[in-house]
């Protein structure tokens, strides 16, 4: 039954502008030339001609590596890091006599670190490969030599193959549409994976192939297609089909692109044109821009400082070594005779002291290599991956309605989330739901719709009017029929409440006839397709836009239910005010004049049962009012007023009108219109538009609709919190200025105490010039006007310095195009930066990206862009951080983003909680890494100076190799993953804490250098306290003093204890994992000494039985360890005590508040008295932050 109904519908009559036979254009003359050389032999993939062309297979790979290039390519990636190159060079030189330790001891940690990173790369690439395997092995039906359709895998498809794709399946390659289950060859396609849009696109086969409806009809089908070469343009296609001795032009309307989905069509037949990486979706698959965090870039600079330090101390050592060596023989006398300088190698030859010093310099570069943290990069990568897992698993950022959790799509930018200075946001679908609901209308000059939108509530508050409770907002939905009222079930797309016209009461209104015509227009003027649920009988609609679906649903709920569409008719269930019941009424459908962005309106021409010819039209007020007849303007003034009110309420409006046509007028127009449609001239589109223009005039005004794109839940509260955190907010939208401003007030972006600076070109002078049409004069005057307005805005801000006045900047898209010019962009940016909020209206996708680039480069701080649609991709990729909203506009924004969330309100937790934690953890982790390596490395320097700069290491080779890999690495990873200075609840309670990241307090140069200085001080205490403690006294009962091996173990033990205890006192939030890693690392040092010391002295050398036989039995060893460790920690403890007391940071104050409030805290809530105290301290805290 369904198939028969579909075969009756000839939809080519419904899509007069989009789905016509493609005319031959200028581009078709290029077929066969460069760029247009592709030839496809349809249904002949095995022909000699096709095989000779050697087109790509349909196998697709998105992996970075393969089995052959993984090792060389991955190694190249690893050694792009300067630290790894250094250790590779050291490892190579370690095979020479210059090395102060064995080659194995330096190769082992290098192999571990490089191997771990390569393993991570391999795992990530294997995940991509699994996705490729899944895509390549999907099944599709292909026409074989036996004239049957057989299932085959996508990867086996070839150019020229004839395929059959069924409903809700993805297209396996770029196809030429031959025919479909509809008689006219119409099919519906969802391109969400390509451009992010969920609205269905209509595709139309050529008339010559549309009749090929079943499998048997393809037995004799042969054709040749010549077309453009593979390219990335999704919205254009040029080709020619040679079939049955005739040439037929092809356009994008006949092309089905890979990864788009067939919808509302049982099946289609198509021929493969482009395969694999030649398909348009793969041609668009560019690598995302490489983004690095500010901390990572600063870390590179610190590495360079450490390299400089390494070179400096190596030079100092070699300088003094050269002096000492030269003085070994003075006047023929041997000064250090026990070294036999008269019989030595070139490395210690007093006669060639300069050369010996140079070799010693090279030795020093290897000896002090521990200053460079070899495991830093791999540790940070491990930590960031684990942080990303915590973000992904955060239940408080999971949106149950759509089953969408938060996703960290990259782990490289976790800490950047804690340093965001400016957010640039889209509006529709990001701040709002992008789910249109019919909420109000004006008919015959009377406004209907009792609800109050969120924007209206904010507007009423601003004007000091009484605001009804939330039960009267537009979110309160009542039914429009008995069925609906009884069930209390809300209806998607319908949020209207007005008892005057609901439940058939409109018949009692003074203009009942106008109301009837108004809702008939909404029920008939569209291209929606009804879909009847066979079980429940409920009707849903597939429409090309959410607005259109909302209009059809509104008409249904108010008594005009659209239920059937055929080739020539539209049928409604209408409420008959005479009989008081619903009747079926059918309208003959003659023409549909499609909506386009240029026309800004759509019309249908129908004939009712009374044989009246009616043109029904709806469109933007900017084009509709000028098309009204002299007698059709009865309600124009009041309708304009209502439209203005609706726009101020943040609603989208369309004007509804109609006219009655006489038969002669329609006949003459139809001849002209059909002639324009079938024209093959290059100006065919202009001819069609002109014909439509002639019929869409002398309209009679009926009223206007108002649909709401509601604010998402929690948006105002989220923006308030972000503002308290010191984050500036920009909204870049395509809406009207009035709508954008009022949305701004509703979501707390604009406030009553904020002074508005409006930059616009909507002035009488500019309008006069535009009417004259002098483009050069318009541009010159516009640029001067924008320059003047920006200067005046900057002056206002300058005059208000020292006051508490805040400013909000509003600029429209036309003005923005001039403000972004080179000569004005700096002054515009200065104005915008000094404003608390910025709203850019009527902005294009390109302007969104340009504004983002300007802000990122201009302020030099972290920018975050957030959006949900394909038009936001440029903005997301341009910003330092791109956050995609996984909403109703598809996944294009999410696929181009660094992080994805389901609702805007989750941005609050993503930044204030995870952002702050990640920033603090990574900052502390890097600072601690440099501290522990400096503390260890400088003990080597002090020892070398103590040993006459001999180049002798203080420690055993394997002590040095395992220091960064086993004895100190795990605690720092635990710090980066688990530490919390403040709980998530308090991070949200005190958003001012976030300013630590914005101001980069925790990774500033003073703090980084302070940690480095702490490392130097710790090394001095460890070395000098240890050596002075053991000088001139017995270490064992038998009177033996400390030797070289024991001194090395004592110092190394003190280093391990000190750096791990430093970690323990720096951690704010202990878990059992951190305890296990910190104390376990210390215990492992002793276990290693026992195990390694038990090995043959040929291998263990200076470590042989040194703990068991020498150190452990000596109380002196344990006493020195205790005293040295405590002494090493005292400088840091003293500094922190003084800082907390006299110069506390924000988190210090909040921690103090938490500890003071803990006794009176019950179930996470504070007592009233303590709350007052906290509010007072918080006020002082904010004042202190603002002062700094």
Automatic annotation (TrEMBL):
Catalytic center residues: 426
GO biological process: phospholipid translocation; protein localization involved in auxin polar transport
Alphabetical UniProt keywords: ATP-binding, Magnesium, Membrane, Metal-binding, Nucleotide-binding, Translocase, Transmembrane, Transmembrane helix
Enzyme Commission designation: 7.6.2.1
Positions that bind Mg(2+): 426, 428, 868, 872
Main subcellular location: membrane
Membrane topology: Multi-pass membrane protein
Segment forming the signal sequence: none
Domain named P-type ATPase C-terminal: residues: 894-1144
Domain P-type ATPase N-terminal, chain residue ranges per copy: 40-102
Biased composition (Basic and acidic residues): 480-489
Stored Pfam families: Cation_ATPase, E1-E2_ATPase, PhoLip_ATPase_C, PhoLip_ATPase_N
Co-factor(s): Mg(2+)
InterPro entries on file: ATPase_P-typ_cyto_dom_N, ATPase_P-typ_P_site, ATPase_P-typ_TM_dom_sf, ATPase_P-typ_transduc_dom_A_sf, ATPase_P-type_domA, HAD-like_sf, HAD_sf, P-type_ATPase_IV
Region (Disordered): 464-489
Binding annotation for ATP: 426-428, 548, 595, 618, 652, 733-735, 842, 848, 871-872
Domain P-type ATPase A: residue ranges: 137-203
NCBIfam families the record matches: ATPase-Plipid (TIGR01652), ATPase_P-type (TIGR01494)
The protein's name in its UniProt record: Phospholipid-transporting ATPase
Species the sequence originates in: Fraxinus pennsylvanica
Taxonomic lineage: Eukaryota, Viridiplantae, Streptophyta, Embryophyta, Tracheophyta
